[in-house]
Design brief:
Elements lengths: L5 H7 L33 H22 L5 H23 L7 H25 L5 H8 L2 H12 L7 H18 L10 H24 L7 H23 L8 H29 L1 H4 L6 H13 L6 H17 L18 H4 L8
Helix pairs in contact: 1-9, 1-10, 2-5, 2-10, 2-12, 3-4, 3-9, 3-10, 4-8, 4-9, 5-8, 5-12, 6-7, 6-8, 6-13, 7-13
Length: 357
Amino acid sequence: MCYEIEVVIVDLMSAPPAPGTPAAETTPASRTLAGTAPARRPALDWRLRFAALSLIWGFSFLLIKVGTDGYAPFQVTLGRLLSGTAVLAVTMAVKRERLPRTARTWGHLAVAAFLLNALPFSLFAYAELTIPSTLAGICNATSPLWGMALSLVALSEDRPTRRRVAGLGLGFLGVLTVLGAWQGFSGLDFSGTAMALLASLSYPIGWIYVRRTLAGSGSSALALTGSQLFLGTVQLALVTPLFTSAPDAFPLWPTLAVVALGALGTGLAVLLQYGLVTEVGPTTAQMVTYFIPVIATAAGVAVLGEQLSWNTPVGALVVLAGAALTQSRARTGGPAGPPNAVAGTRRRERRPSLIRS
């Protein structure tokens, strides 16, 4: 979920690496002009930041569940976006980032905010009214599967391979295992599960849209991300009063959960992920995807006391294995790489990043 987002915009700011090139060598931070000093290394090791990001996004589903104990789902989403936008707004002010200037960019960002923030965040909040946070976290792990399936249809340059097709099949077999298909989906809340899966589908749709419309916009990744979250906040601010009334009270734990969900899971996490993509490259940074459902499941069981049957963790592992297959690439036989690898990056640039939101 939460790898939402915003990071697809970060990925737009740098071209993908050519085969055989270390990812970190192709990121903006590693490209230095002749005679200039390399960027200063962050004080905190990237592995620690990677672990922190995994924990933050893994616990997001628990925070959503706690938030919905005291607030309506739209209110949880609005509070989340408001807190996340505040964090990025402060960061942008400190860095003196300029907002996008063209109406066209703002229009595309409004669509991206709906697909990558307002819609999936709200769907997950509504879903967790009736399904456990563990199931929501596992449903979120299907985003790479949806992304690969959609890219094969929407992006003509992303050709299917046997490995990717096998990954899709394996991943969706894992989904059926999680849902207990052989039992006739007994005891499953269909509406909540469907909303969680639809939220996961919304992310890759948004990624593909962003890839097609915002590449080369001229604005920094931070400016685009902060603007996107601001527009998502405006969208929720307009919608929430139509479906909910103002809360009568502000219970402590749900309020803290919503603030933490936004400030950490949608604000700080974006900055952490941006730093990781810049320092170690998108290939390494996207590995956080595979830790999120594991942490979400552990948090739901240990903290919330949610019940876990054998098919849930087994199916989750199958989903992650399938997702990993869809993202893997076959080794090439020579240094020249596959056709068009040396000719340019245009064909690879349009493939949606699956690093997340």
